[in-house]
């Protein structure tokens, strides 16, 4: 289904194991992004590495262990540190003014109290189909950190998942016209998953700390029946919360916050025929289930994330054959996380069934 790596120890040890056991997936990621940067932006891999190095000083001040983990991946995979840094800064590189901008898509959905008792979040991750071969399921027990279950691309140390403290995270990429040399977005994702509470998670991504824009859907369940979800639209100039007042929320790939729009321009060329329609459909599905007073659980999320209304630009996204190569995206994986139970369901690709991933209890590190 998906290669699972159990990683533990120091940051360097976690990285070396990631790089050595996931070497093929790391090499696949490098191949994918070297081609995408060239096709969409006419950018060589050497130039991409130089762009990534602009973030190095900020990362060293933010969390030196992230540098050590990326160094470990490079050592384990037999590549250079700059290669791994470029993978982790790939969103920022994709948002440079040179050439075409491109970004992965996705639809995130969440339901919590008072709508239901549990705190459940989930999303599709829509991207180039070649990255299916780069996926890794990481079970990480780093020193002095909560245990993390995360689905990521080989070589990238932060992405979508949840932790043993009950913090969970979905990501919606946002394409804008501005970026800085601060913390790459994917490292911000890892910082959230290293957190023990929603408040701690927000402190890691607020105040312009993140170099590019994106929506961080962050859920938290304290294990005592208390849970909450927020959509934090993050930009290099600050954050804003959008939606969620009724115990549920959704997000896709366009900016919803009028505050964020004051500082950056939404450059998503297909937001009206793709992203906005997907969000409206996600809203509709949740409202329909609430109106019907049906139980909302993981199986409900399976149905929602499998929705093909407006295909190919549906929640369960199919490739648009008429789009340029860097815009041809499909649902690469879908994930549902019950933060109250600390368990998740995962489906790889467009076909197949959701399967339970339970790294938290089935494997002792």
UniProtKB/TrEMBL annotation:
Coiled-coil residue spans: none
A Pfam family: AAT
Domain Peptidase C45 hydrolase: 118-348
Superkingdom classification of source: Bacteria
InterPro entries found in the cross-reference section: C45_proenzyme-like (IPR047794), Peptidase_C45 (IPR047801), Peptidase_C45_hydrolase (IPR005079)
Gene3D superfamilies reported for this sequence: 1.10.10.2120, Penicillin V Acylase, Chain A
Protein name per its UniProtKB record: Peptidase C45 hydrolase domain-containing protein
Provenance organism: Bacillus norwichensis
């Amino acid at each position: 289904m998906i290669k699972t790596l159990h990683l533990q120890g120091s940051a360097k040890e976690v990285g070396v194991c990631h790089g050595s056991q996931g070497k093929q997936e790391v090499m696949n990621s490098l191949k994918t992004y070297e081609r995408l940067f060239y096709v969409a932006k006419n950018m060589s891999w050497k130039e991409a590495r130089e762009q990534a190095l602009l973030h190095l000083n900020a990362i060293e001040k933010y969390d030196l262990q992230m540098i050590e983990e990326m160094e470990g991946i490079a050592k384990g995979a037999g590549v250079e540190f700059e290669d791994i840094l470029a993978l982790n800064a790939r969103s920022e590189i994709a948002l440079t003014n040179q050439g075409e901008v491109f970004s992965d898509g996705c639809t995130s959905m969440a339901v919590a109290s008072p709508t239901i008792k549990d705190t459940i979040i989930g999303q599709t991750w829509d991207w180039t189909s070649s990255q299916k071969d780069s996926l890794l399921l990481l079970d990480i027990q780093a020193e002095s950190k909560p245990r993390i279950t995360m689905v990521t691309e080989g070589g990238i140390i932060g992405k979508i998942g949840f932790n043993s403290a009950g913090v969970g995270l979905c990501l919606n990429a946002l394409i804008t016209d501005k970026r800085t040399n601060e913390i790459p977005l994917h490292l911000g994702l890892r910082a959230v998953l290293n957190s023990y509470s929603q408040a701690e998670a927000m402190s890691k991504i607020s105040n312009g700390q993140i170099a590019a824009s994106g929506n961080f859907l962050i859920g938290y369940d304290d294990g005592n029946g208390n849970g909450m979800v927020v959509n934090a639209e993050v930009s290099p100039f600050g954050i804003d919360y959008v939606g969620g007042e009724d115990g549920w929320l959704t997000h896709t790939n366009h900016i919803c916050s009028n505050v964020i729009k004051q500082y950056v321009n939404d450059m998503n060329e297909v937001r009206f025929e793709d992203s906005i329609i997907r969000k409206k459909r996600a809203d509709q599905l949740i409202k329909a289930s609430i109106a019907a007073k049906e139980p909302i659980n993981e199986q409900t999320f399976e149905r929602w994330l499998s929705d093909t209304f407006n295909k190919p630009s549906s929640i369960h996204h199919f490739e648009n054959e008429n789009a340029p190569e860097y815009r041809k995206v499909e649902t690469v994986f879908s994930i549902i996380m019950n933060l109250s139970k600390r368990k998740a369901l995962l489906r790889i690709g467009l076909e197949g069934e959701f399967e339970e991933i339970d790294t938290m209890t089935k494997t002792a590190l």
